[in-house]
């Protein structure tokens, strides 16, 4: 056995260090760096998950290129997968590595706004001609931190061919009519799920609009009202559908789309973009012609149909170059020719009055019907105001699932959900 | 004689009765494990060859009714994916080489030299494995950001090497422990320097272990998702985040395309394993038993 003398020890240590040095020798000067410059900078960043999504990247890139050509600026683009996007953007904003314009899902606005780095886009919003409902999606604590890029809703869509086969006349307007329609569809047999409602915990937040339908406000002031009589009634009704096999176990949005695309579901919940998504999965090339949006059935005639507001906004990180980025955000979201062309390519509805009135948009019957029947009365999720909104939704979803599988009663489960959610209100 | 035979018969029969049962149990266990191991791969291949509109057929079909090569054609035409593949190869190969070089010297020092703090250092190296790696992500992000390495290949290579070193060091130390010290002493008597002894005697004898350590580091770097996504620029990202980015969207998951891409990108790793598996098995087990 040898002993290590000083020279040998230094040699070995040096070799180990060399390995590390070799790896460190190729840094990229631009790597991860935020664009630098003053307020009139001609270079800024634009971060967007859509820049890498097959269905949307060409349209988004066209908007970026058009603005760059028009103004002579250089836009450094970056993209992260949708499911990891919020984590990545949060980390980079916290690390000072994020600047310029940033695409956000409207449900993420509070999480980023809480970091206090977003620019107030009130001036741009005032002159953009946005609809009120669209503007509300980019507002946080009274400040306009996001310019709405697309505003829609999560609502019900139906397969009219299946309804016709089942003998359902017209679209159900009340819960009673809806239940009756589901039973008629169930009578068709053939493994059809009448309503491909979310039953997996990951997607069970879809029950929130049903709780509202039954009369629960979900929140009053700063108090979560989940667990009140209305929300309990909603969950008991959901459980009734589950037990009657009118909704199926273990269904999330992806499963629901697959079932609907295969003609195995008569109703399901989705965003307005549903047409393109299910068409790509369906062997029935005429399925899109059979799809129809419907207002969520109400408890009693005269009630307001409930829907969840959904959409994307563009926020701007305050700091150098933010003026140019804000101008880009304004252009991308409110220039009528741009938003109409964007809609034509990706079918995401614009957010300005002029954009919605453009013949390219107004001539699309499915979208206008969706806007009229669903988005018109859509409201944001009241939990979005909290950075921990996703955990609140999960707390509720897990308890609803416990009810569905018979591990708990609706009253006990929702009381427990409210208790779990309370400390998450921050 | 008769008595001897009569005693020996039951002794001979007993194992004969047990053997088929134990064989059946072994085969059943192999079948179950094989099913769990191979069924996902089978499903991956089937989906890769299934047309989009049939991929979501309900109930699913175990044998594709129709076969398409469209997903592979699209894959071949996707230059961005080729870029991710190049990034994966660069990062994984350099990580493997760096891990082997650094861990070989560290392991040799731990195995063949005696100095104050040796055991503490060894346990310190092992203790670093106790931390969940995801916890280190934020810290590493800040460190690389401050040093200007964020977004570069170096950030990924350094991170992966850091994570693979402890296991590689301990694996190689076990192998160096099995190399008799008398060999080193003989080399010294013949006039070989320590440097020469290490490179001409110890390292060649530890070759299977070096290959195993390299493969382990390669696979670790090849498969990582979250570090590759966070620490590099989009144009330097490796295949796992690249595939997710390309095929898993806000609204849609292109499962058949994703399966085709996953199938193709698995091939280099499968080939490497098939080529080097005899070293891998030898390297992982060497030093496991002494005496």
From TrEMBL, chain A:
InterPro entries, alphabetized: TAT_signal (IPR006311)
Keyword Transport: yes
Protein name: ABC transporter substrate-binding protein
A Gene Ontology term for the protein's cellular component: ATP-binding cassette (ABC) transporter complex, substrate-binding subunit-containing
One GO BP annotation of this record: maltose transport
N-terminal signal peptide: 1-23
GO molecular function, one term: maltose binding
Family statement drawn from the similarity comment of this UniProt entry: Belongs to the bacterial solute-binding protein 1 family.
Family matches, as SUPFAM superfamilies: Periplasmic binding protein-like II
Keywords: Signal, Transport
Keyword Protein biosynthesis appears in the UniProt entry: no
PANTHER family (alphabetical): MALTOSE-BINDING PERIPLASMIC PROTEIN, MALTOSE_MALTODEXTRIN-BINDING PERIPLASMIC PROTEIN
Automatic annotation (TrEMBL), chain B:
Domain of life: Bacteria
UniProt cross-references to InterPro entries, sorted A to Z: BP-dep_ABC_trans_perm (IPR050901), MetI-like (IPR000515), MetI-like_sf (IPR035906)
Membrane topology: Multi-pass membrane protein
Lyase in keyword set: no
GO CC list: plasma membrane
SUPFAM superfamilies (UniProt xref): MetI-like
Compartments, as annotated in UniProt: Cell membrane
Keyword Cell membrane carried by entry: yes
Protein name: ABC transporter permease
PANTHER family: INNER MEMBRANE ABC TRANSPORTER PERMEASE PROTEIN YCJP, MALTOSE TRANSPORT SYSTEM PERMEASE-RELATED
Segments traversing the membrane: 24-45, 81-108, 120-144, 150-172, 201-222, 258-276
The family this protein is said to belong to: Belongs to the binding-protein-dependent transport system permease family.
GO terms classed as biological process: transmembrane transport
Pfam families the UniProt entry points to: BPD_transp_1
Limits of the ABC transmembrane type-1 domain: 85-276
Keywords, sorted A to Z: Cell membrane, Membrane, Transmembrane, Transmembrane helix, Transport
């Amino acid at each position: 056995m040898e002993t290590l003398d000083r020279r040998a020890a230094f040699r070995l240590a040096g070799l180990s260090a060399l390995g590390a040095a070799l790896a460190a020798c190729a840094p990229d000067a631009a790597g991860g760096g935020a664009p630098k410059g003053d307020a009139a900078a001609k270079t800024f960043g634009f971060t967007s998950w859509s820049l890498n999504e097959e269905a949307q990247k060409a349209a988004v890139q066209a908007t970026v290129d058009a603005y760059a050509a028009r103004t002579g600026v250089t836009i450094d683009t970056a993209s992260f997968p949708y499911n990891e996007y919020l984590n990545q953007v949060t980390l980079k904003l916290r690390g000072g590595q994020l600047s310029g314009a940033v695409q956000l899902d409207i449900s993420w606005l509070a999480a980023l706004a809480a970091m206090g780095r977003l620019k107030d886009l009130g001036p741009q919003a005032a002159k953009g001609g946005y609809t009120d409902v669209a503007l509300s999606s980019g507002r946080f604590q009274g400040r306009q931190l996001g310019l709405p890029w697309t505003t829609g809703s999560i609502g019900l869509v139906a397969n009219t061919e299946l309804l016709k086969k089942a003998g359902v006349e017209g679209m159900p307007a009340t819960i009673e009519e809806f239940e009756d329609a589901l039973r008629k569809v169930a009578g068709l047999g053939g493994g059809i799920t009448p309503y491909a409602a979310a039953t997996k915990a990951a997607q069970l937040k879809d029950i929130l609009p049903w709780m509202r339908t039954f009369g629960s406000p979900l929140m009053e002031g700063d108090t979560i009202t989940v667990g009140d009589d209305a929300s309990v009634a909603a969950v008991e009704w959901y459980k009734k559908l589950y037990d009657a096999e009118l909704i199926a176990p273990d269904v999330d949005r992806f499963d629901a789309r697959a079932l609907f695309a295969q003609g195995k579901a008569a109703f399901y919940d989705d965003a307005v973009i549903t047409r393109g998504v299910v068409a790509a999965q369906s062997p029935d090339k005429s399925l899109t012609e059979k799809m129809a949006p419907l207002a969520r059935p109400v408890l009693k005639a005269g009630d307001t149909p409930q829907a969840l507001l959904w959409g994307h906004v563009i926020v701007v990180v305050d700091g150098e170059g933010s003026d140019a980025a804000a101008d880009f955000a304004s252009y991308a979201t409110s220039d009528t020719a741009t938003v109409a062309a964007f809609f034509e390519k990706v079918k995401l509805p614009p957010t300005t009055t002029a954009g919605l009135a453009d013949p390219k948009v107004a001539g699309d019957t499915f979208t206008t019907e969706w806007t009229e029947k669903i988005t018109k009365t859509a409201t944001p999720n009241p939990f979005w105001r909290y950075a921990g909104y996703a955990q609140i939704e999960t707390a509720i979803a897990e308890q609803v699932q416990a009810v569905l599988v018979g591990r708990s009663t609706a009253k006990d489960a929702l009381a427990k959900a409210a208790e779990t959610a309370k400390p998450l209100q921050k | 004689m008769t008595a001897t035979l009569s005693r020996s018969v039951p002794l001979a029969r007993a194992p004969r009765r047990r053997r088929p049962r134990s064989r059946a149990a072994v085969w059943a266990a192999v079948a179950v494990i094989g099913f769990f191991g191979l069924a996902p791969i089978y499903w991956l291949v089937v989906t890769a060859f299934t047309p989009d509109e049939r991929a979501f057929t309900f109930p699913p079909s175990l044998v594709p009714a129709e076969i398409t090569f469209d997903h592979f054609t699209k894959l071949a035409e996707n230059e961005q994916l080729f870029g991710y593949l190049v990034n994966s190869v660069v990062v994984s190969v350099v990580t493997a080489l760096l891990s082997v070089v650094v861990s070989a010297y560290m392991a040799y020092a731990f195995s063949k030299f005696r100095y104050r703090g040796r055991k503490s250092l060894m346990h310190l190296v092992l203790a670093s494995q106790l931390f969940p790696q995801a916890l280190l992500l934020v810290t590493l992000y800040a460190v690389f950001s401050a040093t200007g390495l964020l977004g570069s290949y170096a950030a990924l290579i350094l991170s992966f090497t850091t994570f693979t070193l402890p296991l590689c060091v301990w694996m190689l130390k076990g192998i160096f422990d099995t190399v008799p010290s008398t060999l080193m002493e003989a080399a010294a008597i013949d006039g070989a320097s320590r440097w020469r002894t290490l490179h001409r005697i110890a390292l060649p004898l530890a070759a299977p272990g070096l290959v195993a350590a390299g493969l382990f580091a390669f696979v670790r770097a090849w498969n990582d998702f979250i570090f590759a996504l966070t620490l590099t620029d989009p144009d330097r990202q490796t295949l796992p985040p690249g595939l997710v980015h390309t095929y898993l969207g806000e609204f849609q998951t292109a499962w058949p395309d994703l399966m085709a891409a996953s199938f193709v990108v698995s091939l280099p790793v499968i080939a490497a394993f098939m080529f080097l598996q005899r070293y891998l098995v030898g390297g992982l087990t060497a030093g496991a038993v002494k005496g």
